Amino acid sequence: MPFSESDSFDGVTFDHAVCSGDIEGVSFYKCTFQNAYLQSVRLLDCVFDECEFFQCNLSLVEIDGSNFAGVRFYDCKMIGVNWNGTGGFLSASYKGCIMRNNIFSNMNLSKYRFSSCDLSEAQFSNIKLKHAVFDDCDLAQCQFHQCDLSYANFTTSRNYYMNAETNNLRKAAFSLPEAVSLLANLDIVLE
Question: What is the mean pLDDT of residues 45-68?
Answer without folding.
Answer: 95
